[in-house]
Write a structure and sequence with these properties.
alpha/beta, 18 helices, Amidase signature (AS) enzymes, globular, homodimer, 11% strand, 545 residues, 2 domains, 13 strands
Chain lengths: 545, 545
């Protein structure tokens, strides 16, 4: 009886969240027409069939930088840009299920207001920026549920970062999905269902900021904000072929976000930009930091954003694998192509041999630190609301051997292990400068074992979570797509362990039609500026402007 | 039987630690002569009766800057300087019981080595630097006990900070006492007994870096290193009238120190310089940070030391009291004198009304965060070795109502309270810039409720621990001494609460003969450079160069 009531009540709550979302979508004007009943594998061509030529122009023709320029010059109105992105976001929602809310009225009112100003004002003047739902939202009557049934309808407010972006003139117009617990590298929940990859709907758009990546991957947004504690910005960006940056923690504020385990500080999440354009990463960081957010969130590092400039060729260390799980063939090809290009451009390219650095041990530590209470708080929030525990929640809590309900003393022990591991890794990096050698500037590595995984298969985090444990800044950037001819399976490979076997068995090129393949550049802790500067050099080596 | 054995064994261990200390003292050449059997109230005149005229000249005539200059110019040998400070430290030991070890052979060997170099090298070339025992030590055959009987004789090594100072050419020659648990604002332990104030042996030299302050207060050292998690650098410096700086955490490394509760990160300790000369604080910070210690201790903030320069008069907020405990008359007089001098020099002086900012609540939070396991680990280390739990250990663990053995979830709750409190304080500071006003630059406040307390009476931490909870940088500097005429007791004052009553009842000027009185300057978190720049301006206003 109790259970049945609970079940009913959770369904009611989930519906109410979707009704709120649908109410925003229902306002879309003109109505969406031209979407086929049977959605195609790739959603990339859908907008063309629905949007006007002008809307296509606005959402596809410009880079962010160009769009900001014509907005500032008032060659285009904020309202026209906003309406185009609202409509395109609505198409994205139908195609890949990426929204939790479309802020139709609010965004248009904001746009009209910005248009009415005598002078354009702010770095992001007039730019529609999409946002991850659990961060909260500027404005009145905000609710935030973080994809927990138990929190559906809960009143909430804005956060410090969004207040800054807003004061820089942006338009908030779309809030995006995240998975149950916000701790999957995919994006599904009992509230909003499954978000899929805009290049191949049998694949995940990644997670936990997968609503963002799916939306930006549809150009339903050119700049979104995600958050990353184990790969949640980088993995989704990599899976849709966009740019994403995870800064070192405490450069950008999480102040005001809604999340579990408030007060946990063993491993910290950080917001990060997700965008179609490389140079916007730095613009975002610079703007967020120039506001001196530490005057309101005193936990932040007090340090200006100071762009870095290389004055000589880089020393790039390539991590071909992490010693635990072998990347899929398209990933290895991407690595080789970019490493070759860097060498050809005059950079020093060496190997990052991390077999002795225990990336498996790093996972043991971080997985334990994610859930120092064994997941008790989160599981009770889920079960208490009557919703089901999803498979990837089980994976990340119940199936990790080092996730335990710890005493404070046991927590200290694990935290001390973390610190010892960090020191060991720093020592290894510093040692690259021994014997008169130059120190490695950055590591070039996979952001995942492969392209976007088939749904529910994202069960190895090592390629991103490693850099969360170390708190190293890391950026992902698009490189190629899976090639049915070049990226054949290596049938002679013998997996080294159970995880390696799982990942090896997953691969077969035909599962990954159209799938983008991205790479990751990692720097030492708090050398955020250097990582973005390295990305510029690497892309130049690749022949990009 | 077991107890008796245990008792015996702890006494044996304590003796062995003191024997190690005494073995170093026994090497002092020439032997100390001229110390009276009955030690006087103030130890300030003792060195004159023991040391040679040349030793007095070396240890008293020069500032640190001057001494470094003549050492660099080789106008004096490192060995001669080292021997003078070794002898003076030995006198200090007899007078105030401040040493755990005198590194006679090691220091002289080091000095000879430095003298043999073709060129002087390093910022601290030839300077004897004294150090707090639990930090560890450069060299072979090091043991570190942190004043725990249970750890006596334990092998240990150096730490990152000392490695840096060593590579900058200093001479380590004396290790100093700390109290049981390193968590008293005084300095006594079952290993080394009681360290007393060099100006008045009935008073404490403060703690927990009280061995350092007692030694520097005797000019047995001109620069020492302490550590601060609740006042342990500032309180002892204040009590002997020297300069001491507690930087924001994570600018100077604790990497390699010996301490309890490894892995605890709710409240962090930081090393800090303790010295006779103001400008050495900045030299110390600059040198420690220029070494890029984050390449070895990746938990540190990656940020250069960038000296700050005021270009207009300061806005100084005076905290006359903390809303909990009224400072003693000499402290209030010192505040008034310095505030008046600042006003006269053209600075804007306003009040820091913190009654509404809940400094008592801050204490509840930080006292709980000091001991998230209710003190279990530490108490079991003490009791397990058979030694007694000292009164100030009982005070700081057992007598604090918010010290509890917490679950991880309860720890998160308290940590979240800490973060909320920090945000509230930041908001109040930021609000001083509202309505077109200038923002407060620094707070001028007491570093303690009064001058050095009579032994075992240091039972109110609020004037220092407040800034540890907030992680604000803070510097203390000497102002005056207790004046038997001016600093009469305010007999009309009615204490506001039990703590206030305790502190009020403690005061009576004749208890504080000769006692130095110091003040504290506090800045916003991570504005370390600004705090030291403010100290220069405040001292100039006081008529100091």
């Amino acid at each position: 009886m109790g259970d049945a009531q609970n079940l009913q009540s959770w369904e009611v709550k989930a519906s109410s969240a979707r009704e709120r979302r649908d109410a925003g979508l229902a306002k879309v004007e003109p109505k969406l027409e031209g979407i086929p009943d049977q959605l195609p594998l790739s959603s990339q061509d859908l907008p063309k069939g629905v949007l006007t030529a002008r809307e296509i122009e606005i959402t596809e023709k410009y880079s962010v930088t160009e769009l900001l320029k014509i907005l500032r010059e008032r060659k285009i109105s904020v309202e026209e840009v906003t309406r185009a992105f609202l409509r395109r976001a609505a198409v994205a929602q139908v195609a890949v299920n990426c929204l939790t809310e479309l802020l139709w009225d609010q965004a248009i009112a904001r746009a009209k207001h910005l248009d009415s100003l005598p002078e354009p004002k702010g770095t992001f003047f007039g730019l529609p920026i999409s946002t991850k739902e659990h961060h909260g939202m500027v404005g009145d009557n905000v609710t935030t549920n973080a994809s927990y049934i138990g929190w559906v309808g809960d009143k909430h407010g804005s956060n410090l970062l969004y207040d800054i972006l807003y004061s820089e003139g942006c338009v908030f117009y779309a809030r995006t999905t995240q998975p149950q617990t916000i701790m999957h590298l995919e994006t599904s929940s009992n509230v909003y269902g499954v978000t899929v990859n805009p290049y191949n709907r049998t694949l995940t758009p990644g997670g936990s900021s997968g609503g963002e990546s799916a939306l930006v991957g549809m150009r339903g947004s050119l700049l979104g904000v995600g958050g990353d504690i184990g790969g949640s910005v980088r993995c989704p960006c990599a899976h849709v072929g966009i740019y994403g940056f995870k800064p070192s923690s405490k450069r950008i504020s999480v102040f005001g976000q809604r999340a579990n385990m408030a007060g946990k500080e063993t491993i910290l999440s950080t917001p990060g930009p997700m965008t179609v354009e490389r140079d916007v990463l730095e613009l975002f960081m610079k703007t967020a930091i120039a506001a001196e957010p530490w005057r309101h969130d005193p936990s932040l590092t007090v340090k200006e954003w100071k762009p870095y400039h290389f004055t000589k060729p880089l020393k790039i260390a390539v991590q071909w694998w992490d010693g635990v799980v072998k990347p899929h063939p398209p990933m290895l090809r991407a690595l080789k192509e970019v490493a070759d290009a860097c060498r050809k451009a005059g950079h020093e390219v060496v190997d990052w041999n991390c077999e002795s650095l225990g990336h498996d041990e790093a996972w043991d530590i971080i997985s334990g630190l994610y859930w120092p209470d064994g997941g008790k708080e989160v599981l009770s929030l889920i079960k208490g609301a009557g919703e089901s525990v999803l498979p990837l929640t089980k994976f990340i809590i119940e199936e990790q051997p080092n996730v335990k309900d710890r005493t404070v003393a046991e927590l200290w022990e694990l935290t001390a292990q973390r610190d010892a591991y960090r020191a060991r890794y720093a020592k290894a990096w510093t040692a690259t400068a021994a014997n008169g050698e130059r120190e490695v500037d950055v590591i070039l590595c996979p952001p995942s074992f492969g392209a976007a995984a088939p749904l529910e298969q994202s069960r190895y985090w090592g390629y991103t979570s490693q850099w969360n444990l170390l708190d190293y800044p890391a950026v992902v950037f698009p490189v190629t797509t899976v090639d049915q001819v070049k990226d054949v399976k290596d049938t002679s490979y013998v997996p080294k362990n159970e995880q390696d076997r799982f990942v090896y068995d997953m691969y077969s090129p035909e599962k990954y039609v159209n799938a983008p393949v991205s790479l990751q550049i990692v720097g030492r802790r708090q050398y955020d500026e250097k990582v973005l500067a390295a990305l510029v050099e690497v892309e130049r080596a690749m022949g990009r402007p």
